[in-house]
Amino acid sequence: MTDHTDTRALLRRFIDTHFDEQVQMLARLVQCPSDNPPGDCAPHAELTAGLLEAMDFKVERHPVPAGFATANGMQSVVNLIVRVRFGEDGPVIALNAHGDVVPPGEGWSSDPYGGEVRDGWMYGRGAAVSKSDFTTYAFAMRALKQAAVSGTPLNGSVELHLTYDEETGGMTGPGWILSQGLSRPDYVLSAAFSHHVVVAHNGCLHLEVTLRGKSAHAARPDTGHDAIEAAATLLPALYRHRDALADRPSQTPGITHPTLVVGLIEGGINTNVVADRLSLRIDRRIVPEESPEAVEAELRAVIEDACRTLPGITVEVRRILLARPFAPAPGAKELSELMCREASAVMGKPVTPIGVPLYTDARLYSEAGIPTVMYGAGPESLLEANGHRADERVPLAELRQATEVVANTLLTLLQR
Fold first, then answer.
1. 293 Cβ partners below 8 Å, 6+ apart?
2. Within 10 A of 54 (CB to CB), how many other CB atoms are there?
3. Per-residue b/e over 306-318, b at no fewer than 16 CB within 10 Å?
4. Percent of the chain whose pLDDT exceeds 70
5. 254 touches 356 (CB < 8 A)
6. What is the rounded average pLDDT of the residues 155-161?
7. How far is CA 381 from CA 4, 71, 385, in A?
8. What is the per-residue pLDDT across 29-48, written as a single tens digit (0 to 9) for each?
9. Does a cis peptide bond (omega within 30 degrees of 0) precede residue 33?
10. I need a surface site. Which of 76, 291, 379, 396 has the fewest CB within 10 A?
């Protein structure tokens, strides 16, 4: 039987010995596209399941019914759960990462699906967000299994929750796992994108606004009502509201203030026709101190006030997404303090809890009352990782360190 110090050395040796294999697994995951949209992610789940089964993990495949997937913006979803029991008693700890990624876009210096390693970084869509943590969590679990075989007493279970709809809100991923009773963990570590311990993040509201007018021949525009012209009134009102949000600072470290972006615009019939329809989509980030219901009511009022006096124009506002902010559940402070201690020890510098202006799946576990923190592989910041941008990348040195941090954290939780 080994003591705590010896076990940590064993975990580190296992991770170091198998690190080339971990990098190869990440490359395979990056090389298999799982863009969302369109959200056809079942093929990537099957690839992942095969890689895990080759490492002697028993993988549960949980397909989401097609109708529910479609209603939540997905074409196909298969959630994967791996459960490793180390003893009858003790906590259940879930490790959650998502395999769906945003489309690559333009401006890459290498193949976005290449998984190329350059100057100590792996490049590729999903390398940082968050296919890297598929491997961080899987190899930490493998190291713990080896420790158990070597005689380390452990009590509890570790589960791997690999899901595929973080980019569309999480309801067919963690939301489905929790609502269907497939798991009810005592603690959750959820994928991150930098080496900080994330304990809070913004929520997000997506609204679709449709302006409807009346089409007319371009030779007689006076006989129609131009939806594109109406947008020329609405957009300045939205941007004035956006600018005013800077005067509402958040008190959460790492989060500045609410933001608003008009991300999509589509409309018109043809060049020689007055547009009878224009739609746009708004992304409004909700800081942890705000009420999502109040944010939505305020934004709807801004839209309605701007369009009220436009002749011949009607306005429809439809909610696409409402993701609530991630705030700590009872017991999360102890978990975050443990993660910070373990990360600081491995990295040799202070790692502190922060908030981030994104929204993630972590909020769904926390909303269910489960102590949840976000931690995984990544550099100092999301900007360094180029998350959701060209040349997304993860530093391999910190991929290895994050794996050790997760293994050590699990060790402590399973030896209490």
1. none
2. 9
3. bbeebeebebeee
4. 99
5. yes
6. 98
7. 32, 34, 7
8. 999 999 999 999 999 999 99
9. no
10. 291
